Amino acid sequence: MTGSYGQIGTExxxxxxxxxxxxxxxxxxxxxxxEILREDGPYYRxxxxxxxHLHNMLVDYDIDIILHNASVxxxxxxxxxxxxxRTNVExxxxxLEAARILKLDQVMIPSSIAAFGPSTPKENTxxxxxxxxxxxxxxxxxFIELWGEYYTQRYDVDFRSLRYPGIISSEALPGGGTTDYxxxxxYEALKNKKYTSFLAKDAxxxxxxxxxxxxxxxxxxxxxxxxxxxxxxxxxAMSFTPEDIAAEIKKHIPDFEISYxxxxxxxxxxxxxxxxxxxxxxxxxxxxxxxxxxxxxxxMLEKLSKRLGIxx
Length: 312
Known about the structure:
This protein is of the alpha/beta class. The chain folds into 2 domains: about 5-165 and about 210-235, NAD(P)-binding Rossmann-like Domain (Rossmann fold), CATH 3.40.50.720; about 170-205 and about 240-275 and about 290-310, UDP-galactose 4-epimerase, domain 1. It contains 11 helices and 12 strands. The strands form 4 sheets. Strands 3, 4, 5, 6 and 10 form a 5-stranded parallel β-sheet that branches. Helix 6 (about 180-190) packs parallel to helix 8 (about 240-250). About 45% of the residues are buried.
């Protein structure tokens, strides 16, 4: 896995090692990893823009599946589109080329709801639909999907991708995405009992709790290739607004208050779907989420309060 110290990678590495054995999952990244990533399996520094190092590592450790999670996210991508291009596009190209040349078994590269754009239907966005994103991050994700699908058709590379919605984690801190408010709000509710949202109160977006994110990823990795008619899939668990999640938090912390000061991320959010249709994933590989807004909120508050040592 590349990007192993990111929001998704940190918890996905743990889940994969628990299931397949620590020695079988190689964590990589460009920065020093959290201590947890060095406890139960190997970690190595890797820059996916270094083609020789990438190929050597894949050969030296007899890798058969790559999970390419290294990515510059939406908010950071708008501040530095050039970095988003180099990391997201060139990095993914290098990974797919390595898979082609070395004949690896499978490549999983996450996509995102950011791949959709203002001209995409906002409600129940279909799996197969026009995609004209207006963010740098979204443009790179469309490239990744199309290039991966091309490699499947042209070179028989087994490319798979999930269009993740906003991911909410009780373990990893936000990483520069437009949906990060839905993680920050829990920390601020517990610490200060108030939060200022950088999205408007009615900015509805598709979301998923991290356990479901991990479940969907592993389910797709393990899916029988013969059952897949698509390479890229919508996945979701719920859709809500900042106002919705604040109301759910207030059920547990009655004196919690929220205010709204939309910034440049509001424009990004407005270009994305409000809800998405993941029936293709349900039909082709049996996707089904476990958490809704109520269950996620309860679990998040319980886990964070224990880690922060805060009673509520």
